[in-house]
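BACKBONE GEOMETRY TOKENS
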Amino acid sequence: MKILTFVDTHASEKALARIKKKVKSEKPDLLLCAGDISVFEQGLDYVLFFLNKLKKPVLIIHGNHEGERFMRKVCKLFKNITFLHKKHYRQNNVIVLCYGGGGFALRDSVFKKTTRKFKKIIKKNGDKKIILLIHGPPYGTKVDKIGGEYAGNKDITDFVRKNRIDYVICGHLHENFGKKDKIGKAVVLNPGPYGKILKI
């Protein structure tokens, strides 16, 4: 299975053109967006319309530039776009666990509560590859390091360390576009606005 991942496009026409080019050349089965597709919801309709026209299934979460309620409402207008926050998605041998928003806190009690459900899904699907699609990065990796300090979330890192996660797709910190690291066996990736391909 081939998946195109991206984040933090912020309504950039250049970024969207790159995404479209990758869709044409790579022919992914699925697109995953880790949020912040707009600038505080400006240009949101335009970006969703553009992504919908790619005629590929797009899973999306909100970032810190989009509100959860508004994103949920507007995404329902588009056939090929599914908004998933605190939910999961299954296709072939892959399960995507989705959690949007945030990016600024070292701890997240709502995320911790949500992981109770995620843990049950992981246990029931031992033969599947597990992707965590989340806006803010986990703590203590190359994807959350800025100026020598870590700025990610410790609850995300704890969850990834203690559970069978294969990939973490995140963003939020523009300085770390394209960077990759590992937490245990899990690959942690900030794919940036131009996107990166996962082959699973």
In short: The mean pLDDT is 97. The longest helix spans residues 109-124. The two ends are 5 Å apart (CA to CA).
